[in-house]
Design a protein that fits this description.
This protein is an alpha/beta fold. It contains eleven helices and 14 strands. The strands form three sheets. A six-stranded parallel β-sheet has the order 1-4-3-2-5-8. The mean pLDDT is about 95. The protein binds riboflavin (RBF) and magnesium ion. Magnesium ion binds next to strand 9.
Length: about 325
């Protein structure tokens, strides 16, 4: 997959471009269905399979940085999209001036002239351009003039096993309510956070016997407070682990942390970027009467996590 990070770098249109456009936050099963259609159509007409996305997330630019937490940060999004069999990913730097382009100008100048669009794949509720004027009806009304096909993906085709429409909003709700076991049904994988290991209070190892790596999160969606069985990717190697998200109420320091104890592991990983996959929620965080009570509970959490993780690759 070729990554184009600026539309101005496209000097001649692609051959029979088949395109889908969106934020693709999460690259969830709904997005995967759109991308599948793109690939299929491109194959049929011997064209180029393309996705266009935006960086940063448009809401970060449009609403003074007020945006929902991201399911996938840019780097993970590009990585996941690159596994979808696309020929090209166009990542448009999203600015206020880009947002002010009218739907008609966008079709004429960007999609047709620059990219060479012959087909566009969209969800039935899709809209784009200034004031979100470019909806499905708009796309269809310009299709014969500019000679492209509009392929609509019906949302009922992309619901989860409970018949719920898969959306980034639903995924945020599921993760924020701690139901991490349901994420494979929505994402096609477990929910993952990525972040740098930062210094903690140096208490876990010395005092409790369970050293933890504290992870610094930026704009990423954080699961509900509590204790989880996780897998941890460090330097491309997968380990088992237990994570705690919250304020460690047994101690009265009131500092929110996302921390992970990696099982059977004793290397120093300060400053490393690690990835944590949330497999199963074990319990709520609790205030214990003392260090040994907390320590005994963590011991049980580790045993419980080992049981759950035994069946996970
Ligand atoms: N701290 C609490 O105050 N209550 C808890 O229920 C709790 N559960 C934890 C479970 C696990 C698996 C881990 C790794 C940590 C937990 N902690 C809990 C956080 C613990 O207090 C923290 O790791 C140390 O204080 C070091 O900062
Ligand atoms: Mg994430």
């Amino acid at each position: 997959m070729q990554l184009v990070d600026d539309i101005n770098k496209i000097h001649s249109p692609f051959t029979k471009a088949v395109i889908t456009i969106g934020n693709f936050d999460g690259v969830h099963k709904g997005h995967q269905a759109l991308l599948h259609k793109v690939r299929k159509k491109a194959k049929e007409i011997d064209g180029t399979a393309i996705a266009m996305t935006f960086e940063p997330h448009p809401l970060m630019v449009l609403k003074n940085g007020d945006h929902p937490p991201l399911i996938t940060l840019y780097e993970q999004k590009v990585e996941l999209l690159s596994r979808e069999g696309l020929d090209v990913l166009i990542a448009v730097p999203f600015t206020l001036s880009f947002a002010s382009i009218t739907a008609h100008e966008f079709i004429q100048n960007i999609l047709i002239k620059t990219i060479g669009m012959r087909a566009i794949v969209v969800g039935d509720d899709y809209s784009f351009g200034k004031n979100r004027e470019g909806n499905v009806a708009f796309l269809k009304s310009h299709s014969s003039r500019y000679n492209y096909e509009v392929i609509i993906v019906d949302w009922k085709q992309i619901s989860n096993s409970h018949g719920q429409r898969i959306s980034s909003t639903l995924i945020r709700e599921v993760v924020q309510s701690g139901q991490v076991e349901s994420t494979p049904d929505l994402l096609g994988r477990y929910y993952q956070i990525r972040g740098k290991v930062v210094g903690g209070r140096n208490r876990g190892g010395k005092l409790l016997g369970f050293p933890t790596a504290n992870i610094h999160l930026t704009d990423e969606l954080c699961p509900k407070m509590g204790v989880y069985a996780v897998t941890v990717e460090i330097n491309g190697e997968k380990h088992k682990g237990v994570a705690n998200i919250g304020y460690s109420p047994t101690f009265d320091d009131h500092v929110f942390t996302v921390e992970v104890h990696v099982l059977d592991f004793d290397k120093n990983i300060y400053d490393r970027n690690i990835r944590v996959n949330f497999i199963s929620r074990l319990r709520d965080e609790k205030k214990f009467s003392g260090i040994s009570e907390l320590s005994e509970q963590i011991e049980k959490d580790v045993a419980h996590a080992r049981e759950i993780l035994a069946s996970i690759q």
